[in-house]
Prior knowledge:
Layout: H1 2-23, E1 27-28, E2 32-39, E3 45-52, E4 60-65, E5 70-73, E6 84-91, E7 97-107, E8 113-123
Parallel strand pairs: 2-8
Antiparallel strand pairs: 1-3, 3-6, 4-7, 5-6, 7-8
Amino acid sequence: MKPIVILYILFFLSFTLSYSQEAKPIIKVDSIYSYGNIDKNSEGLASIKFYNIGKSPLIISNVISTCGCTVPSWPKEPVLPGDSSAIQVQYDTKRVGFIDKQITIISNAIEPNVNITIRGNVLESPENVFPQKNIDRFSVPTNR
């Protein structure tokens, strides 16, 4: 009699756990966002779109950045099943060079922590780059 009770309990637990996983939201987002080449002191604002492909509302509780130069903002209202929204990321473009930062989305999804890598390259502004002098090595100066 005891093994039957244990089997019923195991069946109930497995059904409950599988049902709760199916009912949770699922966040779908690209794992890499690329700014490409951007100019120094440009806007540096990115909009990273995500989707809720689960069966219940997706609630983002926080988005964490690995650096103070990358400031995220996210929707505070739930994203309904089948809908999409976006996380805004502001990168400080006063720093010239390669961008390789991460943000972590924390939510009530089946996968509660999702990492996104943000890449790009901040170039010196065109007005700050001095033109190269075109020097002809083969010309001979003349005194006239």
